[in-house]
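Exam revision sheet. Question 4 asks you to relate a sequence to its structure. Input first:
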Amino acid sequence: MSEKLSNEDNKYLLSLIKEDKIIEAVKFVREKTDMSLKQAKEYVDMKRINENTEYPKNNKIISEDDEEYIFSLLKENKKLQAIAFLHKEKEMSLEEAKNYVDKKEFKNKILNEKTPYKRGYFFDKKLNIFILDLSRQRKVNKIIFYILLIFITIPLIQLCFLDKTSFNQMLILFFCISFIIPLLIIWLALTLNIYITEKRINKIEELELPSEFEIKSLKKNGTLFFYIIIFIMLIFVLSIHINTLLKGLTYKSAFYIILLIGIIIFYFYNFLKELKNRKYSLNISGKTVKIFYKNNEINTIKTDNINHIKFYSTSKRTRDSNPTLQIFDNEEKALVEMTIKREDYHILTMYFIKYNVFIEDKYNKL
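Answer key, structure tokens:
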């Protein structure tokens, strides 16, 4: 039927539909064609669907100016005014307005935090992580290499004219040799560190975000083994203190037993938490994130309903630590907590950036 209307007529018809002037649109179609009233109405309805024009002005659309105004209110600690603005001006329900403001308030709080300074590192905005300043490392490595060459060359030259009876010559020779091994170790360590860092950066840059992928928890067997060993040692020490306590009750022995029981409970809790977290997995497709526990689906959430995600490290070791992921819903309830591989950390970072999910990154490592 659309061929019965010229291009200009179609443009005018679409303008009427976009302005929500449906009656005028139906009349216009009847005037320009030989359609009946029913046929004209069906034609207009079809146009509304096919051209995606079936919407009146949506007051819930929040412009950049609106967001700036909301942020200005939050900076002045006027949270209630921000909620009232969304409720009245954007026709949101109070719950929708509160969830929106809570999310923006959290984001505003994190953005206002100063980026932690890391000596010898710079923040790569493209990769969204701190990266070792390789140019600086290469300069230091080159200087150490030249110094090493000097300390190697001097003894080699000196050997040709060495007088073993000369105290000064022997002192210089011993001084040079004593510096060669430490400098060689430092130079090799820096060279290896630069090589590993470059390899990791290249690997990250080659990563591509798949349309559908799975993330599994990292099974840290070493951590579980550590907890078991510590637990056995604490039980052994506790049994010794209990035997001492049975021989004679003292405040000191009672205090040690209570302290040991507290430490045992703490380690046992972390042991159970580690066992639980290693059984989680994620199945991600488009905007949908499915959470599995023991291969059974326990939750499904859209990226639009994720308040924020958090990456952090549970280990104090900066180089060998793995990231732990937490996902929070709009009520800021943690839906999952799981330790993942570094490669999965970078893929998830790419994914959540793509879908505009706020990331609180306390990990920031290659």
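Marking note for examiners. The first helix runs from residue 7 to 18.
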